[in-house]
Amino acid sequence: MKFKLLFSFLLGSAFCLSAQQGYKDGIEYFRADQPEEAEIILQRTINDPATDKAEANYYLGLIELQKGNAAQAKTYFDNGVAANPANPFNLIGLGAVELKNGNKSAAEAQFKAARQIDKNNARILVDIARAYYNADPVAYAKDIEKTLVDARKAAKKTPEPAIYILEGDMLAPTNVGDAAGYYEMAQQADPNTNYPEAYVKYARTYFVVNPKFSIDKLNDLLAKQPNSALAQRELAEKYYESDRLTLAAEQYGKYMENPNHFKKDEIRYVALLHFGKKYQDSYDLAGKILGEDPENIYMQRMQFLNLEKLGKHPEAIAAAQKFLNNPAAKGKIVPNDYTTLGDVYTALGQDTLAAQQFENAVAVAPDRKELLKDLSGAYTKAKMYREAADAMQRFVDEGDASTNDRFMLARRYQNMAATETDSVARIATINKALKLVDEVLEKVPDNPTIVITKARMLFVKNNNEADQATVDTFLEGVALMDKDPENLQKRKPDYVTAYNQIGNFYLKQGDTENAKIYFGKLLELNPENEQLRAFVESLK
To answer: Which is the most buried residue in 325, 353, 387, 455, by most CB within 10 A?
Structure first.
């Protein structure tokens, strides 16, 4: 889908965030497997008075460990211990570092020290089990299971949702159904919704099986946490991934009002507004982002695309030139950029310039053979008939051309032949067209459009005069059209052409009786044409 292809070019920009809801948002993002977003929030809020520095340092350390930076992770965990020695989780983090470094005995000493701080805390045990799992789920399989058994015992009186979440995470790569079941158990064990990641992970895991269930689950989370940026964002994403773009745009709009939205999500929203046909809103938001980041090529592209849809063609050309000439756009220009600019030039009647843009599109993606058809159409509008035929022939030569594609190529050769000044060249070209149209007629013999087109080709071959072969083919086409009485209106131009050429043929043959019949049929189609009426009445 074009939208999704474009969408992929709108990611990866810098983004910022308001820290009004505090460091806990960062923890939620990390536990929902979004460490990049988590790190931004935690770094921005680490020095806030309300931030629990021991807890924040623990998650920053886990992020670094996930990135493979064991030394930096240890620094964060040490900072966490210094901030609050009674917090057991940084000791777990230090143990995880030791596992990373291959020192299991040292890791176990840290885990033991963490357990001593709060012996009956199931959550401590879950995080120790997760540390083993993250280090090596195969080598430490027995340690993981033993620790989880202890966690279940500790949680006998008060269910611990984190147990089910870890069990779901362990199953998710190989057993989606069971993983989703564990995430659902975590939700049931969490009446206060302290573990929103259970809903988010359920939605992600089950989405490939049943998108509706996943979206319903996120709506449940949002009903319980209406101000959750994570819930709002995940729901918007799932609407997008299921191609419910209108709902995705609506949900992103609500999420944009949350102070904890990310700048990169504004960029996504620009695209969703565009494909939701809210072109002015999309243009305005792109302008806002460009005010902060003037050389953002993705927003420059979106301004151009929106201006094209708004019908502001001169402004669209200026925006396109700014985008295409941006050094940062090198290597990131896609065929749609050029074909859209080609459409703008076409709308302004500048068909030659339009064709040049379609040439650029083919040059950018020579492996996308369908662009050759678009190029052929652009050449045709620019009355560059030889080039149009060549481009369409290249497309057909690539293989897998449909019957309609071959018919289109025949029409291209017909146009080319009609403008040939050399009679030998005209005959050679029109014969190519006739050969192709005969191949098409073998597959669809009863199509009046193709038969009438063949008659027109024969007319061109005979130096723009109808001969017997031309008349016979026109008559065949008329007979096919007559099978449906509605064709008298739907295909009126074809009837007019056929009757006119047949009448003229008989007139030149001196057969006024047949000429009068067909000019009479032409008059029936155009009864208001008094000049034609007088002509028909004059025939004897």
So the answer is: 455
